[in-house]
Amino acid sequence: MENDNMEEWESAYYLSKKLSRLYEANCEEKKKVQDISKENAKLKQRIKDLENELKGKQKRNKVVVKEGPEADKKLIGVRIANENKSEHELNVIRTLFIKYFESVLPSGHFGVKRIGELDYKPFDEAMKFPKDNQNEALKKWKLWRKCLRDPLWKPFKVVNIQGNLRKLLMRMIIS
C-alpha cells in the first residue's frame, strides 16, 4: 500500500511540475500577445496620426483625393481638358508668331528648317551647269543624308602628324 501511495505522490509531483511548466509557458504566451497587442495599438495610433496629418495637408493645399473608377474618369477628364487648353494656347502663340513674321518680313515668305534634315538645293546649285551632274548631285545628297542620320558617323578623323593631333575631314564625303 505504501508503494501505491508513493507512486501516486510521484505521479502527482510530475503532474504538478508539468502543470507548472504549462502555466509558465501560458504566461509567456500571454505576455507575448500583450506585447503584440500593445505594438498593434501603437501602429494603429501612428496610422491615425499620419491620416490626420495627410488630411490637414490636403485641407491646406485644398486637394481632395478620391478613389475609385469615377475618380479615375474625372481625373482623365481633367487631364484631357488641360491638354486641350495647352494645345489651344500653343496654336494662339503660333498664329501670333506667324503674324509677327509676316509684318516684319517684306515678302511675307519665310521657311522653317527641320533639325537633322539636309537641304537638297545647295547640292543641286553646285552641280547645276551641266545637266548630267544632277544625278551626281542627287547621289552626293543621298550619301550625305545617310551619313548624317548615322549616329556613329564622324565627319572628322583625328590623325597624329609629327606629334601634332589634327582633325581631317573625311575625303569620301567631299569627293
UniProtKB/TrEMBL annotation:
<keyword id="KW-0175">Coiled coil</keyword>
<dbReference type="GO" id="GO:0080188">
    <property type="term" value="P:gene silencing by siRNA-directed DNA methylation"/>
</dbReference>
<dbReference type="Pfam" id="PF03469">
    <property type="entry name" value="XH"/>
</dbReference>
<feature type="coiled-coil region">
    <location>
        <begin position="33"/>
        <end position="67"/>
    </location>
</feature>
<dbReference type="InterPro" id="IPR005379">
    <property type="entry name" value="FDM1-5/IDN2_XH"/>
</dbReference>
<dbReference type="InterPro" id="IPR045177">
    <property type="entry name" value="FDM1-5/IDN2"/>
</dbReference>
<feature type="domain" description="Factor of DNA methylation 1-5/IDN2">
    <location>
        <begin position="113"/>
        <end position="168"/>
    </location>
</feature>
<protein>
    <recommendedName>
        <fullName>Factor of DNA methylation 1-5/IDN2 domain-containing protein</fullName>
    </recommendedName>
</protein>
